[in-house]
Each structure stands twice: as C-alpha cells, then as structure tokens.
Amino acid sequence: MDSDGNERDDEHGGDGNGPMAVRLPVDLVRPKPAESVPEGPGWHHSVKLDGWRVALAVTEDGVRIHSRSKRDVTRQFPEAADAARELGAGTVLDGELVVWNERQGRFDFEALQSRGLARTAPGPAAPVAVLIAFDVLAAPYTDLRPEPLSARWPRLRSIVEQAGPEIQSVLATDDAARAREWMMRMRPQGVEGIVSKRWDAPYRPGERRAAWRKVRSADTLDARLVGVTGPERRPWGAVVELPDGRRAVTTPRLPPVAAARLGGAVADRLGEQVEDAGLDVTWRALTEPLTAEVRVRTGRVPLVRYVRVRAEV
User: Which residue, of 105, 187, 280, 296, has the fewest CB within 10 Å?
Assistant: First the structure.
C-alpha cells in the first residue's frame, strides 16, 4: 500500500523504476454535475460523448485499457490498443471509447456496450471503436497529474498526433458560448453535454473542489401527466409520458411549494393505484391526463425534472 492507502502495482512501475511513473490501474477524475456551462476566463470546455470512460496505458509489456471501475477491457478494444503501440512506454491517457453508427448518424452506445461486455475479442464485422482522449496523466518517466491542465493539454495534443487514427483528441474550446452551441447542435449525434475544466487545475481524483464540471444537454418540453407518486395533496413526483413514448417519474422529490401546486392541479382527478414494475414505483393514475412542462436531460436513462402543470388553452 502507498501513503494514500492505494494498492501498489509492482508489475507496472510500482517501485518507481522504469518508464511507468504512475501505478496501474489509475483512478480517474469524475466531473461534478452542474446546471450550466461556467462563464469567464480560465475554463476549458470539451464535448461529452455517449461512450465508455477508460484509461489507456502504454507499458513495457504492451498496451492496457481499463474501464473507470478498473476492469481490463483491452481484449474487447484491440484497435485502440494497436493505435497506441507507437507511443512511448509510460504514456497514460484518459478518454472515452465510442462507436460511430454511420447509418444512424450518431454515436452508438448499444454497439459499444455489446463489445465491452463480451468475453472474447471482436470479430471482423464488429464496428470500429475510437478512443476520444481528453487528458494525459503520464508521459514516459513523468507523472503529469500534478501539472495544471494548461501544461497537460498541449502534451496530449502532441501525443495524439503520434497515435493511429483510432485515437483522437476531443473537440474543445475556451469559449463558453461556443460550447453551449455545440451541446445543442450536436445533441442528435450523441453529444450528451459539456465537461468544463479549470486550466490551472492539476489532475486530482476524488477532490471535493469542482475542478471538472459536467453539464448535460437539456430540453424543456411538454409531456402527458398521467399520475403522481406519494400523497395526493402534496405529491412526491409526477409520472409523465414523454413525446417518444417513454414513461418516467420526475426527480428529485418535489419541494413543498411545487408539491402543493401539483396536488391542487390533480385534486379530484386521481383514480386507481398502479403497481408499476417497469418504473419500480407505485403511483396514482389521473382519470384524464394533463399537460406538464418537464426538463429532460439526455443520457441512456433520461433524467426528467418537473417544472409545472401547463394551463389548458
């Protein structure tokens, strides 16, 4: 164990010798959720894609790819490993594995996941996976994590230029307005949002300070309010049907004022109790649906936030 209580990996530089300056598998920084893209100078904004977060490490024994949970997925994504073979031993990249679906014109998470969860190497007909790199944790003999992003970013761009085409650098900007435009314009292609990082921040997993912030794309839209959860007079949440047919329970639990207003809107409209196995919740159905305004954040499982019941016109 090291001084921070982490398990040593003596096979790959755990004793501080050789080109590996960090122990594998590495911990990855997790962005903190935020409501909006931060404004002002000092921020670096990059697109968030619908893929698998991984660390790719070039060791003296070959390339290794680990998921965020530190599971070895090298066998499942050999093209990304092959693209890194010309990089110097000791290089460690942080990025997102993605698969592009040419027919659908968007990133295909299902295709990526089916590859990642397989126990065997992909066949010749498998869709190509690409690593979109957005940070570099180490270079040969050098731990770059204590360095600010302003030093790591140019190193990353230089490293990616030396890699094969299955490793690319993420689309990024310093302009918050441009980042917001990307988030909205590229949403149909599978861009889930924006990750913003402080230029002066080192790479510190588990740090409480929000050096990395994640903003998901969000749309406010009309949905069919079909029921409520919790007490009739002050519901905990709304059960809605989205325009694409999916049903969801709003989250988080409604604050008192919003709960009272929703309770007033559904008064004398509630019918039978529904045991919903799909939503894993019990709710009361409306005898006649109303229209609710909701805010939907994109992702494989949509996050639906209740806004208000819309007045009928």
Answer: 280
